[in-house]
Amino acid sequence: MSLPRHLQLTLKSHAEKVCSLYKRALRNEWSKYDESWEYRYHAVLMRARFDKHKDEKDLRKAKAILEAAEKELEKDLHYQPRKFGFSPGGINYGREVTLSDWVLDYWHPLEKARYPEYFARREQRKQEFIERWEKKYGKPFDDHHH
Prior knowledge:
By secondary structure, the protein is mainly α. It starts with 13 loop residues before the first helix and ends in a 9-residue tail after the last helix. The protein folds into 2 domains: 10-76, no CATH class; 101-137, no CATH class. The protein is elongated, with a radius of gyration of 28 Å. It has 5 helices and no strands.
């Protein structure tokens, strides 16, 4: 069984760290500018800053540049970062209502008639489920036996 990527406890390569920093830096720029043209301008400047050091061969120097950039980003973080609506922290996170399956049982027959194959298969599967349930747990008691 493999863990989701965000839970894996493996070391990141230098390139992965740089890509992560770049993405976080762009998201920080996105939080700062309301106008798309302003954001794009600053995103291009940010890309130029990263591209300036992309061919650095000395790993110690590259690591020092990365650490300095991490500190700069931490110091420059926007006080109210933008979030995607349906992501954790976003305005719509956890708001989508998922209806239970039993709601379909209360549809009017004319509504069900629009999807005859679906409801025929649904009734068949409901019956199979009831049969499996009764085979495993037995039939439910009548209220008169209590």
